[in-house]
Design brief:
five-stranded mixed beta sheet; single chain; 14 helices; globular
């Protein structure tokens, strides 16, 4: 899927300029491969596009819907896309295997990922998952996160039956009682099942031993070195888009529906889900710096991953992320 709205606007401006001026203002093209299909996790990008923030930074951005965070990270690692939007856990796992990629900004600074289940199921805590069927979407961030969650709570992977199912199918399986739980974000499960009159419970990973940041921007190290300003401009425009989205959620939802008209998410559902997304962008509330995760938090994540998973200790955590591409003037939460 291609969305090149900023390019069209820039082309119109360039057409009115003398040739040498048009060449000077020609936009740089950049493709971002998303973690999944368009939903509330992408509101800030859509509003940044709608308001011309990328165009003002001299960028023509293509947004490509994805097939999971792990897939997006692998596409960045192999050079098939210059920029990815993926869960940090999935990206770190790919990087730990030798891929030359780095996290350049954390959009969801606290993870919304967790386990959802029908309140009538009797599930209240992680131990209640023993002997149950848990759905995990193939290629998603959950492939890496679920084992961490289980281990942190004294469970083995053999204690649960993992059912590989994509999001929409898993929701149907949960509603019909064919599975007991889903590893997802609450807005993708709670909101649609509430329409069916079903009460859904949720356990966030960060509340049960997996304090990770989540959806982040990632790029290859060599591409960053070749053109750091390109990524710096994209990050700056993106963070402005997220700030505006939090201030004006209805405008952000409308922008997303315009950018991705094929989405199956209704306006009502996107607005309901937006509050979950915004709470992850600004977990510290008003004044929190969008896109920035401090060194001490990264070091805590490193400790979790090296103790709960077979994450290598051959490199320091600082080898997996950079703060150098964030704006000199922080973009803060309203």
């Amino acid at each position: 899927m291609k969305r090149l709205l900023a390019g069209a606007a820039l082309a119109a401006v360039a057409a009115t300029l003398p040739l040498h001026d048009a060449e000077v203002t020609a936009a740089e093209r950049l493709k971002m491969t998303m973690n999944w299909t368009a939903d509330s996790a992408h509101l800030g990008f859509a509003l940044a596009e709608k308001r011309g923030y990328y165009a003002k930074e001299g960028l023509e951005v293509e947004f490509e819907e994805g097939r999971g965070s792990s897939v997006a990270a692998q596409l960045v690692a192999t050079g098939r896309t210059p920029l990815g939007y993926a869960d940090a856990g999935a990206a770190l796992k790919v990087a730990s295997q030798g891929a030359p990629i780095r996290i350049i900004a954390t959009i969801w600074k606290s993870s919304q990922f967790g386990i959802q289940f029908l309140e009538s199921s009797g599930i209240e805590k992680p131990a209640d998952l023993k002997g149950r069927k848990l759905s995990v979407a193939p290629g998603s961030a959950m492939v890496a996160l679920v084992p961490m969650f289980l281990k942190a709570n004294g469970l083995d992977e053999e204690d649960v039956t993992i059912v590989s199912a994509k999001q929409e199918a898993a929701i149907g399986l949960l509603a019909s009682g064919q599975i007991d739980a889903i590893a997802e974000t609450p807005e993708n499960v709670v909101v649609p099942l509430a329409r069916q009159g079903l009460a859904v419970g949720n356990m966030y990973f960060y509340e049960y031993g997996v304090p990770l940041v989540s959806l982040s921007l990632i790029a290859r190290e060599d591409r960053i070195a070749e053109n750091p300003d390109l990524y710096r401009r994209f990050v700056r425009a993106t963070l402005r888009g997220w700030r505006d989205a939090i201030e004006e959620p209805e405008a952000a939802v409308d922008a997303l529906l315009e950018l991705f008209p094929e989405t199956r998410n209704s306006r009502e559902d996107l607005l309901a889900a937006a509050r979950y997304s915004f709470s992850s962008v600004c977990p510290g509330g008003s004044g929190d710096v969008i896109g920035y995760t401090p060194e001490e938090t990264w070091n805590g994540i490193y400790e979790v991953m090296t103790t709960a998973l077979d994450f290598p200790t051959t490199k320091p955590m600082s080898a997996y992320y950079t703060l150098d591409l964030l704006p000199e003037e922080p973009v803060t939460c309203p």
